[in-house]
């Protein structure tokens, strides 16, 4: 009688573990990659730096530390604002709201390059593969310390 009860407990326990793991995978909201996975190239960040200077530095400063009401896009302030969000969230917000005098006026490639410059400035590593502009794919890359 004890072995049947023990076997049943083991089976119930295994089922709970399996169901819990399956539920986590099905409802998985955690991005598959992070900014530490070398998600952009140095060439993109260089283009992004030029686009940033032309379109963003007046408000956010040459060093991305912010000026006036414009928030810092570097360091602890950036991580406080964007940590645990996705690169897609950052891209989409910049695209929809910036530059403040002409939102959504730049091409997706320019917005993407600006995002890569922000990532490089925050010391996330560059790699060999270009960052794309597909919002769904960008949403799978988490900004994390």
Order of strands, widest sheet: 1-2
Kindly state the number of beta strands: 2
Helix content: 55-70%
Number of domains: 2
Most strands sheet: 2 strands, parallel
CATH architecture grouping of the largest domain: Orthogonal Bundle
**What structural category characterises the helix and strand content?**
mainly alpha
Kindly report how far apart the N and C termini lie.
53 Å
Number of helices: 7
Overall average pLDDT: 86
- Helix and strand succession? HEHHHHHHE
Named CATH topology of the largest domain = Cytochrome Bc1 Complex, Chain D, domain 2
CATH class of the largest domain: Mainly Alpha
Give the C-alpha Rg: 21 Å
**At the fourth CATH level, what is the homologous superfamily of the largest domain?**
Cytochrome c-like domain
Low-confidence stretches: 6-28
In percent terms, what proportion of residues is strand?
A: under 5%
The best one-word shape is: globular
Summarize the structure in short.
It contains 7 helices and 2 strands, in the order αβααααααβ. With 145 residues, the protein is mainly alpha-helical. It has 2 domains: 1-30; 32-142, Cytochrome Bc1 Complex, Chain D, domain 2.
Structure description:
The protein has a two-stranded parallel sheet. The chain contains seven helices and two strands. It is mostly helical and 145 residues long. It is globular and about 35 Å long. It folds into two domains: 1-30; 32-142, Cytochrome Bc1 Complex, Chain D, domain 2 (Orthogonal Bundle), CATH 1.10.760.10.
């Amino acid at each position: 009688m004890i072995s049947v009860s023990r076997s049943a407990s083991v089976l119930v326990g295994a089922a709970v573990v399996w169901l819990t793991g399956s539920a986590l995978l099905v409802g998985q909201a955690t991005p598959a990659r992070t900014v530490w996975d070398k998600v952009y190239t140095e060439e993109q960040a260089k283009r992004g730096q030029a686009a940033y200077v032309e379109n963003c530095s007046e408000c956010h400063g040459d060093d991305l530390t912010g000026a006036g009401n414009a928030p810092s896009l570097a360091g602890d302030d950036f991580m406080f604002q964007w940590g645990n969000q996705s690169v897609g969230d950052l891209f989409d917000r910049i695209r929809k709201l910036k530059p403040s005098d002409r939102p959504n006026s730049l091409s997706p490639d320019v917005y993407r390059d600006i995002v890569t410059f922000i990532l490089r400035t925050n010391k996330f590593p560059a790699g060999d593969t270009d960052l794309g502009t597909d919002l769904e794919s960008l949403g799978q890359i988490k900004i994390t310390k």
